[in-house]
Amino acid sequence: MKYRRLGESGLRISEVSIGGWITFGGSVCESDARDIVHAAVDEGINYIDLADVYAHGEAERVVGRTLSDLRRADLILSSKCFWPMSEDPNDRGLSRKHLFESVERSLANLGTDYLDLFFCHREDPETPLEETVCALTDLVRQGKLLHWGTSVWSAHSLERASELAAEGDRYAPRVEQPRYNLFKRDIEHDVLPTAMRLGMGVVVWSPLAGGLLTGKYNDGVPAGSRASTTDWMKGKLCEENLEPVRRLCALARSLEVSPSQLALAWILARPGITSVITGATSPDQVRQNVGAVGLELAPEVIAELEDLFPLAPALD
Question: 54, 171, 180, 217: which is the annotated catalytic residue?
């Protein structure tokens, strides 16, 4: 495994990390989740990404029970909040009240007394940004969070949060977590360069486009796959998307790597990227994904991939 600094912080994160969205507490049983986490740690992965809303807290609880077999100090644990967790109008968003209560809930679920990273899962137009920055600063000063970050925030909001932090001797966001893959490259226009300029790390989710970039949907929808159970994934299985994936698979075969490894290695070759958050339903998938680490892509391979999956023009 290789490790990268999280922006200008001193924290070092594995290039490939493991996430619990959909799987932990959901599509994967607890014993299998334990095996997946142990396989990840055995492969050198030190970052586990979670959120309060994943399986309505069960993903955190599953990982918390798994931590009893592991050394907490060796791990980087993150959670997030924003999405509604109940009918209570205050049990959502990025208000001071919800941030404090969500952090306490995640700490209890995970059985730990601090989180290495805590993300604002989306922007909250109903809460003043200064309230959010102040609340997270207090949580860092209390030792409950080491760093805070953002997920799917605009470049403008990253700038403003950093400005508010500088103006009031507060803690600035240290990491952004956007969706990023060969199909979805829009952060290259503004979010990625802004994060780099602000000294933020960037850990990306959906690096394989929900499994589309693995090639497993090239010849139809396998039983039990994500596309067999979710309508939003089925809508992506059009010929316009499948044709470049088939060519990606052919390129991967010529390089004697898997399509997943090639797609992940392309992301890791981009400037400013700290880690790719991968999902897995088995220890073998973990090991397959880790195979992207250290895979050096020649400039002509990168150019071919970017021709197959071109960057869409920026929207005004």
Answer: 54
Residue 121 belongs to some domain of the structure: yes
Rounded to 10 degrees, what is the CA torsion of 284, 271, 80, 76?
60
Spatial CB neighbours of 101, under 8 Å, sequence gap ≥ 6: 91
Q: What angle is formed at CA 77 by the lines to CA 130 and CA 188, rounded to 5 degrees?
A: 60
Q: Is 180 a catalytic residue?
A: no
CATH number at residue 131: 3.20.20.100
What pLDDT, on a 0 to 100 scale, did the predictor assign at position 228?
A: 46
Q: Can you read off the two tokens belonging to residue 172?
A: 């600035």
Q: Split the chain (316 residues) into runs of 10 and give each run's mean pLDDT.
A: 98 98 90 97 99 96 94 98 97 98 98 99 98 99 99 99 97 99 98 99 98 86 53 71 95 98 99 98 97 97 98 82
C-alpha separations of 238 from 2, 96, 172, 180 in Å? 36, 43, 41, 20
Please count the structural domains in the chain.
1
The residues near 47 (Cβ < 8 Å, ≥ 6 apart) are 13, 14, 17, 18, 75, 76, 78, 203, 275, 277
> Backbone dihedral region of 215: left (phi > 0), alpha (psi from -120 to 50 degrees) or beta?
left
- 222: tokens are 């396998």
The two three-digit tokens of residue 52, written as one number: 């309060």
Question: For the whole prediction, is pTM greater than 0.90?
Answer: yes
Decide if 145 contacts 139 (C-beta within 8 A). yes
Kindly state the tokens that stand for 284: 């073998």
User: Which residue, 233, 298, 238, is CA-closest to 262?
Assistant: 298
In a domain, 231, yes or no: no
Rounded to whole angstroms, the Cα distance separating 56 from 224 reads 22
Q: How many CB atoms lie within 10 A of CB 149?
A: 28
